[in-house]
Amino acid sequence: MNNSHLIKTEGLYKKYPMGPTTLVALDNVNLNFKKGEFAGLVGPSGSGKTTLLNILGSLDSPTEGSAEVLGEKVENLEHKEAAKLRNNHIGFIFQTFNLLPVYTVYENVEFPLLLQNISESERRLMVMDALEWVGLSDRADSRPTQLSGGQSQRVAIARAIVKKPALVLADEPTANLDAQNSHNIMETMVKLNKDLETTFIFATHDEKVMKYLRRKVYLDDGKIVKDEVIKHELSKE
Amino acid sequence: MLILKLAYKNIKGAGLRTWLNVLALSFAYAAIIFVQGMIDGMSNQMETFSINAQYGGGQYWQQEYDPYDPLTLDDAHSKVPTELQQLVDEKKALPILIRQATIYPQGRMQNALLKGIETDQNILTIPSFVLVNDDGYIPALIGKRMSKSMGINKGDYLTVRWRDAQGKFDANDVKIVEIMKTNSAEIDVGQLWIPLERMRQMTSMPDESTMIVLEKNSAFNKTVGKWQHKDLDYLLEDVRAAMAVEAAGDSLFYIVLLLLAMLAIFDTQILSLYRRRKEMGTLMALGMTRTKLIQLFTLEGSMHAILAAILAAIYSTPLFLYLASDGIGLPEATAEMGFAMGDVLYPLFSFGLIVGTIIIVLLITTIVSYIPTRKISRLKPTDALRGKLT
Known about the structure:
The complex is a heterodimer.
Chain A: E1 7-18, E2 21-33, E3 38-42, H1 49-56, E4 64-69, E5 72-73, H2 79-89, E6 90-93, H3 105-115, H4 120-133, H5 149-161, E7 167-171, H6 179-196, E8 199-204, H7 207-210, E9 215-220, E10 223-229
Parallel strand pairs in A: 3-8, 3-9, 6-7, 7-8
Antiparallel strand pairs in A: 1-2, 1-4, 4-5, 9-10
Chain B: H1 2-13, H2 16-55, E1 59-61, E2 78-79, H3 82-89, E3 93-103, E4 110-117, E5 138-143, H4 144-150, E6 157-163, E7 169-180, E8 191-195, H5 196-203, E9 208-209, E10 211-214, E11 228-230, H6 232-235, H7 237-275, H8 277-285, H9 290-326, E12 328-329, H10 333-336, E13 344-345, H11 351-374, H12 381-386
Parallel strand pairs in B: 4-8, 5-7
Antiparallel strand pairs in B: 1-10, 1-11, 2-9, 3-4, 3-6, 3-10, 6-7, 12-13
Helix pairs in contact in B: 1-9, 2-7, 2-9, 2-11, 7-8, 7-11, 9-11
């Protein structure tokens, strides 16, 4: 893996057959992301940002072209290898939180570590650390149904970063949150990005998220139409 | 181990849904074991009664004797061979002499079998000790079915006509000294039991008999002249065939119960799959492999079966223990069906039956859990996250 590039895509296409025609969701996408970036894939609905995020997260594979993530070519990965890549190096944050309803907050955050066969004592330290980062140490025994939307998303963030992944992919993480909760969530992620040097890539069209981004990749109809690096200090509103 | 822990957490977390499933499945366990226990109990009881009252530890038949051919009875008598007589003298075998006869209950003429039996025998449960008398009349013992069908009661006199060894007719009155209550119709219907020695005198057949019944668990099976040895497998063939027919009908019930249990699990798995497709996508996104996902969901199904077995054991053990010890009363009509079952049926809940049922249900549950879960292996994580199933 080239150390400077955490992610590198070349001539990336994703096509879906739609009856007699083909829907091109990604059209010749060439992108690089470096370690520690706080970037966003920005665009309207149907522009291909979630599709691209899924490919970068090895949840999907491209129709053509190459997507190299943490030194692994996603298009060549077997199911097991893709699962291993996700488990060891990638954290996901979803719009609808996707917490496991029968588990407590602690167990939800602990889950990725269970898959890594980490010892119980080590797991406990890591889970409590992650919950402290997101300010939910006191809700460890709560069930997801007992949490507000903002708290649920913070649990999802804790779950994504508990294994200290190199990359966190967040798909519309604030879409279901009000302004104050969105602000709090983004502040948490900015802090984690700084403290842990974790790369964050968002798929969003939410202005509340965009103002925190240090890089915005604009997508339209599956094509990159603009790649903008923002050179200003983060807003603290 | 991880999958086991996760499956346990998931089914525990599913709360009421899990317990309803487990309860339904536990009924299937209990019902299957109960029905099969009844069949086994019935079979065991029929065999036991037949052995105790009729077959002992096997029989030797005079070479001409064929119970299915009445025409053979005239010639089916001869002196008891020495080897068998030795067993008789040691009270390890019981000679029985059988002749055709005609009886005249209330002026009607009926065919009957006249059977001579030793009065001091302990090999069969026939109460032949009641045939001891010194009043001059011929004492006779009949069964309750015979008594009912012929309208003969204890103390009644009945005219009997028979042929002796030379084929000459003779007749006399016999006195019914007892009506025996027996579970076996084969020692009851159309039969009069009289003392063997008296019958030998009446028929001029000294020291002769038609069959020898060995004591229970007798290992004696030597070839004795032309007498045919009939072991219990042969003698119980009809009983077992009758039970097989009965069991076949009950098996249908067993299969329906199993199918219902399977359907319940299959439905639950399909519903669970549908409800939890997003959860599956999340698990995949978190790095769970497809194989582990299939294992997890299949194990959840199997754990329902294990919990159901535990639940069924909790509520059905006292009931089954009670039924096995006190039995289930059978209606009067059962006795008329020709099955030697008695008034009370004691179900037989063997270890093999219980373990076998648990294994079968567990196996079937695992299979019907696996089939819908296998669908997951074809599911793309992105489709699962979107809630799609195809």
